[in-house]
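User: I'm curious what two different proteins look like when written out as structure tokens. Can you demonstrate?

Assistant: Sure. I'll show them one after the other, since each token string lines up with its own sequence. Here's the first protein:
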Amino acid sequence: MRKIDANRWIEIIANLGIVAGLLLVAAQMKQTADLQRLRMLHEESRGMVELERSLLGENAAAVWAKSIESPRDLSLGERRIMDAYFYSFAEQLHASFLLEQEGLLEEGEWLTRVQLDSRYFFGNPYGLAWWRAYSGIESLPQELKDSIDKELSNNTRFTLLAINGPLKDLDEILDSESATKQE
């Protein structure tokens, strides 16, 4: 009788092991499917960004500067270049947001990227106007939109200030180098 009870317990434990193994395999399959879905979303986003970047061309820096200095004078082609520039950046922020939601970035990393970079990219009148138009897209998470909006409030001249920041010290550095050469 004891031998039958021991065999039954061994059978129960073996069956529990099989069930646990099947649950583990199911969890791994779900994780693999989730990662594959994320990989496909990333590839789609990357493809769109690459397509947009291909429109930037050789004079993107000059167009970017013009968008800051005289945004009303941008031609249709130049506005399209700026659209590609801004879209690429916005899509990168969106991708960071999604990666964090999937647990593949540290908590708060997407927000740090928004805080560090959104004022630089959109912190000028043309960039802000572009963002206001683009942020109406329903597929963008509201939390992402709100965070960017917060960074952009009262920062319509941030880009220009950041670009011109080194000019404050330039004369001092050049004068110092000149004085050193004369000695």
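Here's a second, unrelated protein for contrast:
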Amino acid sequence: MDLLEQVITEKPRFHASETEISRPFDARESYLSESSARNLAAGSLVCYGIGEDVLRFLARSIGPSTRTLETGAGCSTLIFALKGARHTVVTPSPEEIERIRAYAGGKAISLDTVQFIAKASEEYLPFADATSLDLVLLDGKHAFPWPMVDFFFIADRLKRDGLLLLDDAAMRSVSILVDFLSVDPGWKKLENFADKTIVFMKTKEKVLDVAWHMQPWTVGSTGKSVPDDLVSRLWREIGRMIGAK
């Protein structure tokens, strides 16, 4: 069995149950079932890796010349390393990074092309020097509004025809973003892995230089025009605000 298949089938445990906050928390803070909340609070090591089919898709989609970035870390990080991608991985957990390094060392997986950033994504991405990215995997913090924040700061760092992977797409904080991208003219849905991981291709060089009325999702997911009475109310409100100055 080659190294790629070993990583996929072994599912190494890099994650300490709750990965989104560093502080200990009381299970009563969670809105999950009592048993699930207690398991998260226990801090035992688990594997939150993306699906095997998604890992194989990643392996097919990248190579030594590929510039990539992910929020979150895990088995996917090792796939990027094995394929020699020029990869940036953003996770606030130094412990996760050390576990990945230890596993890679034990398997003789080179991490020479991987740059680990031990920071929260909202701290790093606004100032990142990553540009012309070929592929981005967003699988970091899932609490609202982090998926949107991460998307905002990488959207125009991803080049035209680049791929964006969103994991845990059924989660409400992520599904909002999936709904938006599914109808936006700057993106094309390419793959849907069991409604959990969705792959989009960017179809425009720049997608953030827009006004609200240029976005089908904002105007209405069907792409219908804004009702005339709403436009009139908007212009009246604008006029009122200008007159009040």
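A detail about the second structure: The beta strands are 15-16, 45-46, 67-71, 86-90, 114-117, 133-138, 158-166, 187-193, 197-202.
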